Amino acid sequence: MALVAGIDSSTQSCKVYVRDAESGELVRQGRAGHPDGTEIDPQRWKDALDEAVADAGGLDDVDAVSVGAQQHGMVCLDDAGAVVRKALLWNDTRSAQAADDLIAELGEQTGGDGGQAWADAVGVVPLASITVAKLRWLADHEPDNADRTAAVCLPHDWIGWQLGGASGLDALATDRGDASGTGYFSAASGEYRTDLLQLGFRGRNPMLPRVAAPNEAIGHTSSGALIGPGTGDNAAAALALDAQPGDVVVSVGTSGVVSAVTSVAAADGSGLVAGFADATGRQLPLVCTLNAARVLDATARLLGVDHDELSRLALSTASEGLVLVPYLEGERTPNRPDASGAIHGLRLHNSTPGHLARAAIEGLLCGLADGIDHLRAQGVEAKRVLLIGGGAKSAALRELAPAILGVPVIVPEPGEYVADGAARQAAWTLAGTSEPPTWAQAASKTYEADSTPAVRERYAEVRDLTEGTNAM
Prior knowledge:
By secondary structure, this protein is of the alpha/beta class. It is 34% helix and 21% strand. Strands 1, 2, 3, 5, 13, 14 and 15 form a seven-stranded mixed beta sheet that branches. A seven-stranded mixed beta sheet has the order 18-19-17-16-22-23-24, with helices on both faces. Strands 4-7 form a two-stranded antiparallel sheet. A hairpin with a 3-residue loop joins strand 16 and strand 17 (256-260). The termini are far apart. The model has no long low-confidence stretch (mean pLDDT 96). Its EC number is 2.7.1.17.
């Protein structure tokens, strides 16, 4: 029996899942934690990987391995391959002003709208999370470190390079999925835009990882296992779910992520839709909301109930005009970083725990539905939703989702989709076939309901009537 391993190196932890290469059956697993923070010494990723591998019983009998990891993180290496400074992670916001500056500068260069210029060039409008903005911050605030930087890579690139022995900078490799989140790689053309890299890095032109094919072996581990190209976390999850055109993957975790596999490359100048690539050679346009599962946590805490009771309350009544706009941490979609949450339409008849519970879940879902609309505006077909993430454990969220999202909702059993997607990619690399291997999908349940456009219409009426929005 050939074995493959999928590694998920996330912000919080490292997980290793070893599976049968042919069937996908789980053989064993291990995990280890990562330290908190928005910057980290990459060696801590390697230490956690070693611990997780040991917890999984080692990889000496594994035939192929691949890495899925958090996107956008900036890893700078010197001429000798040593780390120049701690990696800045996707959630580090010190580069917010740098992102704004880059948008303005490209707009001045092109004589048009800067956001659209970035979207046309690479499918991505710079934000604090995007790698190119982090490089601009480094150039402006730590120029000596910028000067020492001979190569720039992403977390999954660095971990894969370490698995292969880190033999030299020319051995660095990445894939389209992760590269598309840098701000200097075009998912549409499949090529780096070194002019934008140099714009971001104040004229510097460091080496970038080679972009490998979706099933290409980029090296071997010390025990002889093939190393697949790896990918970013969202692309790995889509691969694990075997998402196809017409499927929209909605992940309700700390943040909400709405993405879809398609042949259409997004170019949204507003920046609401990021034009990422997937792990199979197609596109993966993506929308991110800041407020997702923690809206459920906050509402349960406010009502003094657990999540089961929150669902029971929400399903006990309609909202009857009550709307909760859940901008509890500002919001990314729409871009309202200073916004706060708000309750609208509160009257005597709807001043009950059930109404508030219902309004909270409807508000969360309306934000995700807006994300699906943004994808549709970029030419994406949405026939059904695959609902995953911790928030999908909410019975009320599952029951109410099809009516608000407007399409059937499929909820697979909870799983480690990033690790499983990496494992499936490793099996694909091992097989050398034109398509990924067919693995049995986890059991799922389908939820359907008549659409309730009135809920979304009411939400849209009050969405911007809150502090920190342009309407106030």
